[in-house]
Amino acid sequence: MNTQFGFNENNESFFQKRRAFTLIELLIVIAIIGILAGAVLVSTSSARVKAVDSSATQSVRSAAPAFYSCLISGAAISTADGANPTEGTSICGGSEKWPTLAGSWSIINIWYNANKGFYWIRAWNGIPMGTPGAKFFNCDYADGSYGIDGAIGNESFKCTKTDGASVVSSF
After folding, report:
1. Is 5 a member of any domain?
2. pTM over 0.70, yes/no
């Protein structure tokens, strides 16, 4: 048995004999892959929530000018003041329809004053207020409402996102 310099009796080196990974090495690699996959899933989950929120916001923002146009033109609004509109129905008899919002978001109520051209559209993500993750946003046009001032005919709209207790952001 010639073990000098790492050779065995067949004159093979220790490294030539080893041809496979050990069980421990394989388990370590699997654990590392699992940790990395978990980190990716967590980051994509928060990105998915942000994407759904953004999509819902943009849907309401796209309906806001049509709603405002109906108000200032004197057209009859299809949804009663203070009620929630039905998704996919006409806003005021024209081709514009109330949007279908992404995820669990829905438009929970609208308020308007046809004589003055003021309006307020509120959307909610379906999570009960006071619960972590609960959000709603308002898109409005009214004197003094969320800092929006202007005359009838001003087509700049502001939406404000909130968690139910405080304003989170304006966009």
Report:
1. no
2. no
Give the DSSP H or E segment for 118.
strand 118-124
Nearest to 69 by CA among 96, 50, 43: 96
Closest by CA to 121, choosing from 100, 144, 98, is 98
Q: What does the radius of gyration of the chain's CA atoms come to, in whole angstroms?
A: 30
Residue identified by tokens 């009663």 is 80
Write out pLDDT tens, residues 143-168: 544 433 333 334 445 666 655 544 44
**For residue 69, what are the domain limits?**
23-170
Report yes or no on 52 lying in a domain.
yes
Task: State the Cα–Cα distance between residues 85 and 110, nearest whole angstrom.
Answer: 8
Burial of 2-35, coded b for 16+ CB within 10 Å and e otherwise, reads eeeeeeeeeeeeeeeeeeeeeeeeeeeeeeeeee
Nearest to 156 by CA among 169, 139, 138: 139
